[in-house]
Design a protein that fits this description.
Number of helices: 15
Helix content: 40-55%
Largest sheet: 7 strands, parallel
Strand content: 5-15%
Number of strands: 11
Distance between the termini: 32 Å
Length: about 350
């Protein structure tokens, strides 16, 4: 099997020849230290990874050496992994009524995704990153202000989410036309302790828009992976019912446990995750990396259903040695049929 076939097998509830891996974000400095390349497309090819996640292209206005303004009118300060929003164009309903979102289907919007598709063909799975209905309004208003609209102006929250869903639905239409088979929708709807909204409020206000987006993607034939850090336990059933094919990253720091979720939902969805990227892949020993990789396989990989990865991303703090050990371990003991006694021995070594 090749990488594309492995990931699609997992998402189709089939058992691949080996547990596949991919990451949402690969830090250039870490990639360079691992194998001498900074470009994620080149890195995925060099390291023989199974898939790559690629975002949409945007023509941004450079404001100074640290700040850009994107096509949504959001001012961002640029870092390695994520251009953090610091200036928000919408404050109230009047701003929204005067606001025009960018055109989703401009020709350059899919340039880098097309490059990945042209590079990998049918050999590796190119996963398009699509914003869901929560993250775009968050950036348009700012986190705190957007959360407050659910109490102060729920009509504005609803309008923002409807606009975001409409935009992403059109993006999905464009992605299918260029040959994309899998998307990941984000971003976070929880922290390590709780949902960002009361679960009942999430179901009333956010979920209908999310389900509409997922439903449209599924009608197009896309496989959908939902990403959110944090404690999702109160809404996992809702997310599964929306039609998603996979949930990521099953973060134990957010009280999410792969073995329990697989037991409950493994016949309905697959899982992606969850080797810890806060400590294990950052600063723990090589033996600890191998042990946690084996534990993840035991909890989520028996019988298929697992795309193994970090618990979030390969950020700038990741040890290149530890990440290389993780990738090598997948090929060493991630082959089906899994050698359970071997995995148990490695998992128990640390």
């Amino acid at each position: 099997m090749n990488g594309r076939e492995r990931i699609l097998a997992v998402l189709n509830h089939q058992i691949p020849d080996r547990i596949p891996t991919c990451e949402w974000i690969l830090n250039p400095k870490v990639m360079e230290k691992v194998c001498g390349v900074k470009d994620d497309i080149a890195f995925v090819a060099e390291m023989d990874m199974d898939g790559i996640a690629v975002g949409l292209d945007s023509k941004n206005e450079r404001l100074d050496d640290r700040h850009i303004k994107d096509e949504w009118g959001i001012t961002r300060v640029t870092y390695d992994e994520y251009p953090n929003p610091v200036g928000n164009p919408i404050k109230d309903m009047e701003d929204f009524n005067n606001y025009t979102p960018p055109e989703p289907l401009l020709p350059y919007r899919f340039d880098r995704i097309k490059k990945a598709l042209d590079t990998f063909g049918k050999e590796r799975c190119v996963i398009a990153r699509v914003r869901d209905v929560f993250s775009q309004p968050r950036d348009l208003m700012g986190y705190e202000n957007f959360l407050m609209t659910f109490y102060d102006d729920p009509d504005l929250a609803d309008a923002l989410m409807a606009m975001s869903a409409d935009y992403s639905i059109k993006i999905c239409d464009g992605l299918v036309k260029i040959g994309i088979e899998v998307i990941v929708v984000g971003d976070d709807i929880a922290n390590n302790d709780n949902m960002l909204l009361n679960p009942d409020m999430y179901r009333e206000y956010v979920y209908p828009h999310f389900a509409r987006l997922v439903g449209h993607a599924k009608k197009l034939g896309l496989k959908v992976i939902k990403h959110s850090d944090g404690d999702l336990r109160t809404v996992v059933e809702d997310l599964v019912k929306s039609g998603i094919d996979c949930l990521d990253p099953i973060d134990e720091r957010g009280n999410m446990f792969m073995d329990k979720l697989k037991e409950q939902y493994g016949d309905r969805i697959a899982f992606k995750g969850n080797v810890d990227c806060v400590e294990t892949l950052v600063s723990k020993s090589v033996e600890a990396v191998r042990a946690e990789t084996a534990r993840c396989m035991l909890k989520g990989g028996i019988g298929g259903g697992l795309i193994i990865s970090s618990s979030n991303s390969i950020h700038s703090g990741i040890s290149p040695i530890n990440y290389r050990v993780f990738l090598d371990a997948i090929k060493e003991f991630g082959n089906y049929p899994l050698d359970i006694p071997l995995l148990e021995k490695i998992a128990g070594a640390v």
